[in-house]
Specification:
By secondary structure, the chain is mainly beta. Helix content is 1%, strand content 57%. It is built from one helix and 54 strands. An eight-stranded mixed sheet has the order 38-40-43-42-41-44-45-39, with no helix packed on it. It holds the Pfam family Lactonase.
């Protein structure tokens, strides 16, 4: 029998009760309707969840992953912050314009403070103040937690939503949705001292544990802006999937996690390289992520499903190529001086090692395999790793679209597409909307120039190319001849303009007409009958968009 001379490696326990991340993986906890904000008490013993759709706050015991209390609130509770000492939970009541203060010992509301349009709340590190964004008032309210009174109102950019405070408490960063910017508040003077342009429609943000960076989620262009807090400038822009919500940084600062509400995934960003290393299929409408203090797992609100899911983060990324070569971070306890890390039976290469973290390079392999770490204390299992096959592309529809991009769904078919990280049309990144093993649905972003480009799909299993997508200039209509004809239809009409070669429809007042493309500058069509006389639009439609001219229907002479 093998004798343990020191504690064996293990996934770090969420609590002293022996609950581990590997056990928690896949747990789904029913809460109220449309859960959004979630925050954990210090030590992670309880999670408070704002259920916007059912006007309640659920209290989860993280040792048992069960709801132990349901607290009625006002209309539309949205976000939650916990005081540093764990005695108070602050909940924004959006529709009522209130900030509710909950005594966590009794789970009773002890104060309701008026804050117009209360959206997101954050508590200062010393617990003396909370900051609440007011979206309709373009302000952030500062509340004294000793008296539960608003002591200052700070003007910021337009439609502020996300609020986050630096670890030293000296600055508050505010995501201003309608300004496409982040406002920076000096907490000593309660004034806005800087405005930082970011992506389109910044909605939520978070400050890294070391305070060096702010991660801003831009819902309009599906990106994350990375702000260097020393210079208050954007140093990186990272593409993620459709409808991103909150970005949360792991306690060790190595990875940022983005909840993508449309494709039901969580994007994992390596904060050293600012690159997405994994998209994890997770939940139904993932919105807000809160980490357990030890970093081995996180709690994710699923706004559509009405649940909180438990996401294991002991092996990140937990999928990669069958050829090996992926850099993987393992999180747990008693990992120091590891002598081996194995993916199934094959040994990986250890590149960094502490008591709570180990970095390794994966060997070649296949299928789903356990990840084990061996030290002088024995061998422990940290989680699973999934080897993915190289993706293959078989089709794309439509294969062309407007230069400006559009919300039209583009479907890419193939094999081994699950877990797709990125899709490119030439150099232009497309936004992932939905993913399965055989189909990717994406949206084309605007391109710099018209023309065809190679379709590239990146997954944990590798890279696939072989299809093309063409960006098309918008058409123009410069002339319609003749300009009129009888209401009975049948007039042969010549339409001139530019970008007409790809025309796929011509309509007269919304009625499709037979047409023929003669060249990039000329299309002929036959006017359909019209029930009324008058001047109406002649619309030419193609992958680049629409263009219109006019045609007048004239009634025949009668008695």
């Amino acid at each position: 029998m093998f004798t343990l001379t020191s504690p064996s490696p293990q996934a770090a326990q969420a609590r002293a009760a022996g609950f581990t991340a590997s056990f928690a993986a896949g747990v789904s906890i029913p809460v109220g309707d449309t859960p959004q904000g979630i925050a954990l008490t210090p030590g992670g013993a309880r999670a408070y969840v704002a259920n916007r759709g059912s006007n309640t706050v659920s209290v989860i015991d993280t040792a048992t992953n069960t709801v132990t209390a349901t607290i009625p609130t006002g209309a539309a509770p949205t976000f939650v912050a916990i005081s540093p000492d764990g005695t108070r939970a602050y909940v924004t009541i959006n529709a009522d314009g209130l900030l509710s203060v909950i005594d966590t010992a009794t789970n009773a509301i002890v104060a309701d403070v008026a804050v117009a349009g209360a959206s997101v709340v954050a508590a200062s590190p010393d617990g003396t103040r909370v900051y609440v964004s007011g979206q309709p008032t373009n302000t952030v309210s500062v509340m004294d937690t000793a008296t539960n009174t608003v002591t200052a109102t700070v003007p910021v950019g337009d439609a502020p939503i996300g609020v986050a405070i630096t670890p030293d408490g000296t600055r508050v960063y505010v995501a201003c949705l309608a300004s496409n910017a982040v406002s920076v508040i000096d907490t000593a003077t309660n004034t806005t001292t800087d405005t930082i342009p970011v992506g389109i429609l910044p909605i939520l943000l978070t400050v890294a544990p070391d305070g060096a960076h702010v991660y801003v989620t831009n819902v309009g262009d599906s990106t994350v802006s990375v702000i260097d807090t020393a210079a208050n400038t954007v140093t990186a822009t990272i593409g993620v999937s459709a409808q991103p919500r909150l970005t949360t940084v792991s306690p060790d600062g190595k990875h940022a996690y983005v909840a993508n509400a449309e494709p039901d995934t969580v994007s994992v960003i390596d904060t050293a390289t600012n690159a997405v290393v994994e998209n994890i299929d997770f939940g139904d409408g993932p919105t807000v992520i809160a980490f357990a203090p030890d970093g081995t797992h996180a709690y994710v609100t699923n706004s559509v499903a009405g649940t909180v899911g438990v996401l294991a983060t002991t092996v990140i990324p937990d999928q990669g190529s069958t050829a090996g070569g992926a850099t993987v971070t393992l999180t747990g306890h008693h990992l120091a001086n590891a002598t081996a890390v194995r993916f199934g039976t094959a040994q990986g290469v250890i590149t960094a090692n502490t008591d709570t973290s180990l970095t390794a390079i994966t060997p070649a392999g296949s299928g789903a395999v356990p990840v084990t770490v061996t030290t002088a204390g024995g061998t422990g299992t940290l989680g699973q790793f999934y080897y993915r096959l190289v993706p293959v592309l078989t089709g794309i529809s439509p294969a062309a679209g407007p230069l400006a991009g559009s919300d039209q769904e583009i479907v890419i078919t193939g094999r081994n597409l699950d877990g797709a990280i990125d899709v490119y049309f030439g150099p232009t990144r497309a936004v992932i909307q939905r993913v399965s093993d055989t189909q990717l649905t994406v949206r084309a972003a605007a391109a710099a120039a018209a023309g065809g480009g190679t379709v590239t799909v990146l997954t944990p299993g590798g890279r696939a190319e072989g299809l093309s997508y063409t960006y098309v200039d918008p058409p123009t209509v410069t002339g319609v001849s003749p300009t009129s004809g009888p209401t009975t239809g049948g007039t042969s009409v010549t339409i001139t303009g530019t970008g007409l070669a790809a025309t796929d429809q011509v309509t007269f007042n919304g009625t499709p007409a037979p047409f023929a493309v003669l060249s990039d500058t000329t299309v002929t069509a036959t006017s359909p009958p019209s029930g009324t006389e008058g001047t109406f639009d002649v619309t030419v439609t193609g992958p680049g968009g629409n263009a219109t001219g006019s045609f007048t229907y004239v009634s025949a002479p009668d008695i």
